[in-house]
UniProtKB/TrEMBL annotation:
Subunit structure and binding partners: Monomer.
Keyword Thylakoid appears in the UniProt entry: no
Protein name: Arginine--tRNA ligase
The encoding gene: argS
Occurrences of domain DALR anticodon binding (ranges): 450-563
Domain of life: Bacteria
Enzyme class: ligase
Catalytic reactions on record: tRNA(Arg) + L-arginine + ATP = L-arginyl-tRNA(Arg) + AMP + diphosphate
Length: 563
């Protein structure tokens, strides 16, 4: 049931073709105050067309618009304000949610088309830090939302497993590393070596030359360099697997930068055939001055290919392999220029599908106002944060619910959920200051607050002793149920908006509002009171649990049945 579309249809019909349905939909607004109505249509656009004042037009329209869903339609100045029939609409909404259950809010917008999502993509031989969290959880949530909107998704973890940093790491290991230390604590030891290299290189430039030589050996297939690289890579993947398991995130592909080593010559040849390569100080570039952009570097003067070359090869491979209709790159905002260059070069190569590729940027997680840096050793390890969050959740459960079954499982849901929700409730392009205390708060606008609202609602249904799957709801029209009904109504629209704007925060903020309204309802209404509306109230509670749980799932957060 889409009341907005019903209202738009009524308005469009009353205008007799003066404004098309789609134009009416775009103009409809939410009144600032609930006392003004549930939905409003501004008549300013019609003034020129009808050569009448917006106030007069509103009066005429208000008399023509009527529907069983609407209790009354009134003109208020230049607006046509509509009040929904609470009893009819609440019954229809609750029945719809209970019938569709987890499918509520799903759409066929994507028409089963393929969408690839490139996200997470940590660097091999470096720890999985809080800096990697944003791409990981935003990308996972966007994949969930895209599937909800009817797309088939391919989740790609484009690992940073090649590049000059491996020359630095091998050089550092050869100079100061010990095999036993690396085997004992692989990632932390490799991080120490990486940080030490940069500290020493400031005073000893010869180290940079050593790093370049080792990377050249790696590129040339030197056996020792290759074995060290494979060792560092395998150790990293095992560490990353632990993090992804804690976050409950899976990927369809782990093809990283190294995967495209044998696929770049084709790209260089294509660029040569299209006469797009230009020499600049001995290097090969693609000139993008006609787009007011700096050139994309394709090949260094020594013949080495670069990041841009790999991304061009990856894009062509993915199109051939997956035949995607949309391709999201969930990568930090500092890479905006790179992706503009990438997409324009693909366009110059004649690939029209370059227009289907979208960079989804996001802000940084800051520490003391500054971006975290692996090179400087100013990182906060995500695994440590997750363990602390789970530990705090365990402590809270021991204090408040000592007899709770499956405590460990619930603590993991709550601790991990707190971290994911804290990230996703922020608009993705905003920077977030890292604060463990803020992230792990279990009250206010947090993941645990929403999870607890879900668990409380489930508890009410259990206490009722009534089979919540076979409720016979009635329409509700009290002041405390109506805000919940309106929010339940809005869920499909929120999902569509979050997809259109690639913005999971819209769902997170919505869930906070729904949890708040439910808690207000719980504190003012005797839900289990045995009267004619009892099943209607229980049905409303059941609808809330369905939407809270599904909304959290879209964010990648679990909803415990008990807390």
């Amino acid at each position: 049931m889409d009341l907005l579309r019903t209202y738009a249809d009524e308005i469009a019909s009353s205008l007799s073709g003066i404004l098309e349905f789609n134009e009416v939909v775009k103009l409809i607004e939410q009144p600032k105050y609930s006392t003004q109505g549930d939905i409003a249509f501004p008549c300013f656009t019609l003034a020129k067309l009808l050569k009448k004042s917006p106030v007069e037009i509103a009066k005429d329209l208000a008399q023509k618009v009527s529907h069983p869903f609407f209790e009354k339609v009134v003109a208020e100045g230049p607006y046509v304000n509509c009040f929904y029939n609470k009893t009819v609409v609440s019954l229809k909404t609750i029945k719809t949610v209970l019938h569709k259950r987890t499918e509520y809010g799903s759409s066929d917008m994507g028409q089963s088309k393929v969408m690839t999502l490139d996200f997470s993509s940590p660097n091999i031989a470096k720890p999985f830090s809080m800096g990697h969290l944003r791409s990981t959880v935003i990308g996972n949530s966007l994949a969930n939302i895209s599937e909800k909107c009817g797309f088939q998704t391919v989740r790609i973890n484009h690992l940073g497993d090649w590049g000059t940093q491996f020359g630095k790491l091998i050089a550092a290991y050869k100079a100061w590393g010990k095999e036993a230390d690396v085997k004992n604590e692989p990632i932390s030891e490799l991080l120490k070596l990486y940080v030490k290299f940069h500290e020493k290189a400031e005073a000893d430039p010869a180290l940079e030359n050593s790093a370049r030589l080792w990377f050249k050996k790696l590129e040339d297939g030197d056996e020792e360099a290759r074995k060290l690289w494979e060792w560092f890579r395998n150790e990293s993947l095992q560490e990353f697997a632990k993090i992804y398991k804690l976050l409950d995130i899976d990927f369809d592909s782990y093809n990283g930068e190294a995967f495209y080593n044998d696929k770049m010559n084709e790209i260089v040849k294509l660029l040569e055939e299209k006469q797009l390569l230009v020499k600049s100080n001995g290097a090969d570039i693609v000139d993008l001055s006609n787009y007011n952009l700096p050139p994309l570097l394709i090949r260094k003067s020594d013949g080495a290919t670069l990041y841009g070359t790999r991304d061009l090869a990856a894009a062509v491979f993915r199109k051939r392999n997956y035949q995607f209709d949309k391709s999201f790159y969930v990568v930090g905002q500092e890479q905006t220029l790179h992706f503009k260059q990438l997409f324009f070069v693909l366009e110059k190569l004649g690939y029209e599908w370059a227009n289907d590729m979208i960079h989804v940027p996001f802000g940084f997680i800051l520490k003391h106002g500054k971006k975290m840096s692996t090179r400087k050793g100013t990182v906060v390890l995500l695994e440590q944060v997750i363990k602390e969050a789970i530990g705090l959740a365990e402590k809270n459960i021991a204090e408040k619910s000592p007899t709770l079954a499956f405590k460990d499982e619930v603590a993991k849901m709550v601790g991990v959920g707190a971290i994911i929700f804290h990230d996703l409730k922020n608009e993705r392009q905003n920077n977030i200051e890292f604060s463990l205390s803020e992230m792990l708060k279990f009250e206010g606008a947090t993941g645990p607050y929403v999870q607890y609202a879900h668990a409380r609602a489930r508890s009410i249904l259990t206490k009722s002793g009534i089979d919540s799957y076979h409720l016979n709801p009635v329409g509700l029209n009290d002041d405390y149920s109506w805000p919940i009904v309106k929010l339940l109504l809005a869920f499909p629209e929120i999902i569509a908006k979050s997809f259109d704007h690639a913005e999971p925060s819209q769902i997170a903020k919505y869930l906070i509002l729904l949890a708040q309204e439910f808690n207000t309802y719980y504190s003012h209404v005797k839900i289990l009171n045995e009267d004619l509306e009892q099943e209607g109230r229980l049905a409303l509670v059941q609808a809330v649990t369905i939407v809270l749980k599904e909304g959290l799932r879209l964010l990648g957060v679990k909803a415990p049945e008990k807390m």
